[in-house]
Structure formats: C-alpha cells, structure tokens
C-alpha cells in the first residue's frame, strides 16, 4: 500500500531540519550540508549557517528563492528575477528510472556549484561564496548518495571506499540505523558506485 504525503511527512519529522555533513572541505574551504524540503526552503536558516548555494537533487521538488521585491516582469504573464541563493538542479528520481549517467552529472554539477566563477556583471548578482546545501525531499536518499560520492572522490584518503563515505554521511545526517537499507535507496548507491569508476576515468583523461 502506498504511503500518503502525510505519512511520509510524519516519517521525516525526527531528522534534523539541517545537518552539517562535512566541515571545511580541504579543497573548497566550505561546509557541506544536507536537508530535506523544510531546511532547503528556509532562507533564514540557510543564511544563519552561511549557506549561499543549494543543489537540489529531487526531480519532484522545486523552490522559489526570488524575493517579491526583486521580481522582474518584462514579458506579459512572466515573472522572474535573481534568487537570494545560487540554485542548481539535478533532478534525480528516488529509485529506479534515472539514466546511468545522471549520477555522474550530479557529481559534476555539485563540483561546478563550488568551482564556477561568475562574470562581474549586474546580471550575475549572487556572487557570495559560502557553504553549500545538497537537498532532496527528505534528505535521506538522493542527497546522501550524491554527497557520499562527492566525498569519496574528492577526499579519497579520508574516504577510500564509497560504502565508508555513505556510512559517514548517514551518521552525520542522524539517519536511524533501521533505515539504512533504504537510505540511500540501493539503486542509487549502485548508481554512485558505477559513477565513481566513470568519473575517475574522465578525470584521469584531462
């Protein structure tokens, strides 16, 4: 029987709204956080924790970080403007159905969010460099797999295996041990494992 949205929300309540997974990454000098939808949508919480960038791993979840007084409307029926947060979207399904290469893309999008150098133009107003949040709906599966893959590949001495990185992220996110079998979903962990090999090959060829 499929769970209702209310039941899923009830299940998620015991997790922290925001979890610091890694403090001061040696290559990037930033903290890495994970959250579900509640933490990612709380602009005040993000600011209090020095988060300037969000990478959303969920295909079934979006955020509007454009404050009302910053909205631009120069086309009939359209409103848009600069968001208060630099926002990147991966769009993974929490389970089967993702192309094999999408976890590879997720890793490179996360790296791009940390490495991208914006041009000095008024149309690129979000220039602050701070900590980064990786989110999905509950902060249990997709974001755990993506962050674990990132730590495994960028800090191989500290996280020589993907399984070790996943266990580290689970503990930091305070996931209950009885949820480990589905956090992250096995199909996503396997996708991360395959992605790790491909990414090493790609990076070695540069």
UniProtKB/TrEMBL annotation:
Matches recorded under InterPro entries:
Prot-tyrosine_phosphatase-like (IPR029021), Tyr_Pase_dom (IPR000387)
Q: Which domain of life is it from?
A: Bacteria
Q: Which residues form the signal peptide?
A: none
Q: Where is the Tyrosine specific protein phosphatases domain?
A: 108-173
Please report the name of this protein according to its UniProt entry.
Answer: Tyrosine specific protein phosphatases domain-containing protein
């Amino acid at each position: 029987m499929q769970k209702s949205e209310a039941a899923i929300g009830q299940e998620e309540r015991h997790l922290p709204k925001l979890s610091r997974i890694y403090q001061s990454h040696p290559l990037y000098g930033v903290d890495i956080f994970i959250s579900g939808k509640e933490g990612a949508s709380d602009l005040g919480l993000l600011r209090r924790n020095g988060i300037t960038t969000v990478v959303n791993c969920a295909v079934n979840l979006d955020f509007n970080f454009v404050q009302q007084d910053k909205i631009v409307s120069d086309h009939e029926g359209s409103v848009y403007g600069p968001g208060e947060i630099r926002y990147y979207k991966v769009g993974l399904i929490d389970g089967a159905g993702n192309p094999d290469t999408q976890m590879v893309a997720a890793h490179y999008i996360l790296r791009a969010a940390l490495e991208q150098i914006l041009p000095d133009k008024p149309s690129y107003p979000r220039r602050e460099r701070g900590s980064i949040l990786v989110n999905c709906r509950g902060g249990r599966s997709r974001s755990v797999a993506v962050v674990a893959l990132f730590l495994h590949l960028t800090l191989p001495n500290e996280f020589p295996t993907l399984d070790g990185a996943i266990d580290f992220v689970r503990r930091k996110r305070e996931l209950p041990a009885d949820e480990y079998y589905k956090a992250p979903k096995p199909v996503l962990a396997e996708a991360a494992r395959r992605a790790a090999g491909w990414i090493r090959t790609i990076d070695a060829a540069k």
